[in-house]
Amino acid sequence: MSRFQAHFALTLIVMLAACSGAGSSSSDPEPIAYFNVAVIVDTTSDSVTREQAEAVLALADASLYDLTAYSLRMVDFVEDDSNGSVEDVVNAYMAAHPGDLPNGILVFSVGDDDGAKINRGYAQQIPAPDDFRNPFVSPYLDGSYMYVAVLYFNYHYAACGYGGADDIQSPVSVGDECRGEEGTPCVEWEGMQICDFVLPILEERTPVDMAAQVVVHEFMHPFGSEGGGDHFGTEPCNAVMGLPEGTFNNGESDHYNGMCPNVYETFAASYQP
Question: Does domain 3-155+207-269 have CATH number 2.10.260?
């Protein structure tokens, strides 16, 4: 892992640190509509059970409902061992389900060029079959696209002792791991080795609730116009929200899953049944 990647991983942990994972209660009003999600597990690069996927989507649903009054709903779970690109995997799924497509597809995978393995996740929009119309119409696209979130479930947070490999290589940090303090003893978290200084942040967390925020984050990206500038606390976000340059609140960022609040407004206004 490079120094940049290590810094990114630590920043990501801080961004996710305050997630409560609280679900909506049975007394909440019905959602305006459901954003239906099919889950595909690329079994050649990631390992996720149906139960884990359901748990991730349940927490993501609670967050999206709280922010928009729309709900995420898992409608399918499939495994793919083709070792194809994300686009190939998604296209194969769409071809196999004509007339019964979801609004978005969550792909558990390291991603193309290890993009999700490095960055935890990313968003992608893929043209759908000609007869498909997505009722969630981003003003920056049209209704002919499938929204795709790519997420690496077994991401190594604050990796320690891996030395860039998938498996543990050492009981102490290697190279640029743990702020570049090589030889730092690693500690265990959820079956992984992590840097000791992030344990207080992670010890009350699980990979499931760490993943839920990323799911919402990536599905919201197509409804923003600024790419990385749609992240909470960036200059474009602060400008559109009328906040002074440099304004950042970790609790607020966490509440909005690291996305600018205006993106949720755009998403909520995008529904065209």
Answer: no
